[in-house]
Specification:
The protein has helices spanning 2-13, 59-65, 70-76, 108-115, 118-129; strands spanning 22-25, 35-36, 39-45, 48-56, 80-86, 99-105, 133-141, 145-149, 153-154. The N and C termini lie far apart (57 Å). The chain contains five helices and nine strands, in the order H-E-E-E-E-H-H-E-E-H-H-E-E-E. The protein is α+β, with helices and mostly antiparallel strands. The chain is globular.
């Protein structure tokens, strides 16, 4: 049944968009020492989503020894949370994980860098070795999103 949850989440996270790189003119601003480039570059990049579905068995230990240490590590590798909670609403099928986390990463490479980092390995080992919960973790590719690159400043 986990495949139905993953498919539903992928569908919910997906959007439509062109896969082009384009430029959009903006006004040039000049000062005594600084000039700002006359265009903003908008690129398309495909994010990745890490889906963590499972059951926390020792909430206090899990929170202190694992969950509280994740936000700065997510940030270090470019990730952030887009959903955290418990009690899902099952629209089809019978798989209902007691808890879930959905993290968004700039790319699959960034998510893999987090997952394979020595810092996360230490936390993952503590979570597993101490039996703080049972989880399924999936990584899915998102659809391309526009990423705006700020105008370049020339000095």
């Amino acid at each position: 049944m986990i495949k139905y949850v993953a498919v539903a989440l992928i569908g919910a996270l997906a959007g439509f968009g062109a896969s082009k790189v384009f430029t959009q003119p903006v006004e040039t601003v000049e000062t005594q020492d600084v000039s700002i480039a006359s265009e903003v570059i908008v690129q398309k990049q495909a994010p990745a989503y890490m889906l963590v579905l499972g059951e926390v068995k020792d909430r206090a230990a899990f929170g202190a020894g694992y969950a509280a240490k994740l936000p700065p590590l997510y940030e270090k590798f470019g990730g952030h949370y887009i959903a955290i909670g418990g009690g899902t609403e099952v629209l089809e099928g019978d798989y209902a994980p007691p808890s879930y986390v959905i993290g968004k990463w700039p790319s699959k490479e960034a998510a893999h860098a987090f997952w394979n980092s020595p810092e996360y390995e230490e936390l993952k080992r503590a979570r597993i070795d101490n039996g703080w919960g049972d989880f399924d973790v999936l990584l899915v590719q998102g659809v391309e999103e526009a990423i705006t690159v700020s105008p370049m400043v020339n000095e």
